[in-house]
Structure prediction request, 121 residues.
Amino acid sequence: MRLPDPVMHRRRITLEKRARRVVIADTLKMSGTHEIEIFFHCSERCRVDPVRDGYRISQPGRALTLELPRAENATARVYTGSIAPILGWVSRRFDDKRPAPTIAWRGRLAGEVVLRSEVIC
Prediction:
């Protein structure tokens, strides 16, 4: 079964050790326009705060910055224990779920695009 307008997705993850950075490059190729979503799931022990171009994700004594892709009219939101949509949960064992931050990035894109996210330690 083929979709009428398939999207080809390739992901490249690069560790830049000296810069203490992980670069995630998502390359998308499509003919038409599509709603694209990228999710970053955090531990239930994390605190997520907005910063310029992304979020600061921290636990006591540790922190990192997540820079999100830049695209016109894209949005980002943090979900924690959300029912509609069902996002922002973690389950460490059967029949037990706990709220945990999930960062959702959304954009409406067309053609060939590269979405670059960076995790900076």
Notes: The radius of gyration is 16 Å. The mean pLDDT is 96. The chain has one domain: 8-120.
